[in-house]
Amino acid sequence: MKVGMIHHIELYVSDLDKSVHFWGWFLEALGYEPYQTWKEGRSWKINETYLVLVQTKENFLDIPYHRCRVGLNHLAFHATSKEQVDQFTKILKDKNIPLLYPDRHPYAGGNSHYAVYFEDPDRIKVELVAPSH
Length: 133
Prior knowledge:
alpha/beta; 2,3-Dihydroxybiphenyl 1,2-Dioxygenase, domain 1; 2 domains; 4-stranded mixed beta sheet
């Protein structure tokens, strides 16, 4: 255990099946492994950190997520290299997952920040960023 490192992140989602399909390939391609499965949720783990998806109960689906409200803005993941960012960019396009900020890709975060930005099915922004060397 490394004190201060994130133990887990739990996301409530509007459609568990869609979110599992979306997040599963992405996390597993980054080296996460399926960790837990139950009727209302799934999780993936890498080292000592895991990401959990939980189906939101029907009575809480009336107000959809928006990253500009108070709360989570986005999740950013480390890539191994610029080449890995490029590989994921191609996969995202092949899967018809729209990129955010396509006019500024891959430098939407600034000239020294090589990354791809996209959204999950609930429009949670996801970033895959290359190490800056």
